[in-house]
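WARN  no MSA supplied for this record, continuing single-sequence
INFO  ligand: pyridoxal-5'-phosphate
INFO  echoing inputs
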Amino acid sequence: MKITNSEQLFFEAQKVIPGGVNSPVRAFKQVGGTPVFMKTAKGAYLVDADNNKYIDYINSWGPMILGHGHPKVIEAVKEQADKAVSFGAPTLQETDMAKLIISMVPGLDMIRFVNSGTEACMSALRLARGYTNRSKFIKFEGHYHGHGDAFLKKAGSGVATLNIKVNAGIPNAVTDDTLVASFNDFEEIEQLVNQNKSELAAIIVEPVAGNMGCVLPKPGYLQHLRSLCDRVGSVLIFDEVMTGFRLARGGAQEIYYIQADLVTFGKIIGGGLPVGAFGGKREIMNKIAPLGDVYQAGTLSGNPLAMIAGFTTLSILKENPGIYKELEKKTAYLEKGLKEVLSKKGLLHGINRLGSMISVHFCKAEVTDFKSATAGNNDTFKKFFHGMLENGVYLPPSPFESWFLSDSLTYNDLDHTIKAAGSANF
Ligand SMILES: *Cc1c(COP(=O)(O)O)cnc(C)c1O
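INFO  complex generated
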């Protein structure tokens, strides 16, 4: 059998890059087979190294909400590249970008830019600890806050996909203050907070979890977290790296009418370039160096190319709020269509969705936390994934990831996707 270009490229990559990939979930470990090597992308479509075309539901794991290669974003990046790609000195773009985000997200007074969601969450946690002078914090099982040491306890995303139980290389001393709760359990978190109240620096949560599939908070749950934090003087951190500018211009905070004390961002705010950020109340943000003694820095932070790609993307979202309504309609259409064809096949399944985040779970019970998310049938998911891929639909290669829709998708694309799910052999 002739080997494909992707197979050849993967073979070569594995000689020089561990597992052939620079981020583990890309390796298709959960679903088997060879990762598809990509060549070009435009709008809703990807073209791989063998010239196969796919409808994209990963969208670079969220950032490409406008679709790939949006002409305005590309033009802005090219223009900036002609002027300068990096200074390591302050620029007007950073202030413009900060003002834009503050104008779109509720409750932010100040923001600091970093280069990834991981950095944003690490820095927000350090800040919360520095601000409260406490060291314990609570995170949730199956939630992912990047690969910072303290967060890699019962984490979602690739850690869940690869089923890594004990993360090597992280001393216990670093995770001793990491307390883990199950998402959506009102009593457990209340007990945990009460037991640790004088030592609890923060609760960090994905307000809508997207790294164990898409899992919504139960009604009142986020408010519960807000009240608990207020009661014991802990910092509530919303990790909106995924949900920020995805669910609404103001992210989950806007949708649920709840304000966190600190919010982390990534993904969409870079418009496809590497950017992260954390922001919040002035009183807390004033603790960061050079104003305060919580140190945080970055050689390429606020990089002009990344700033302009993000600024242009966010400006388009700000000026066209209709995009969110359209995305919602399209995703609801996809949900309905998938439900119909999967039911017709007699497959046990559930679909979780909010806005343009959606995930399909092949299990009986509703998925509301990590335990229920792991109850899905992996064999069915594998077959579903490969069936869709063969039919030109590129889905996340793990049931522990949310799919993301982009504004470029047409109803034809959605119909093709639904038809593929109906005809795929699994
Ligand atoms: C992706 C993600 C991160 C990590 O961001 P990176 O840019 O990959 O470091 C953190 N938190 C959440 C909720 C994410 O989805």
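The mean pLDDT is 96.
INFO  checksum written, moving to next record
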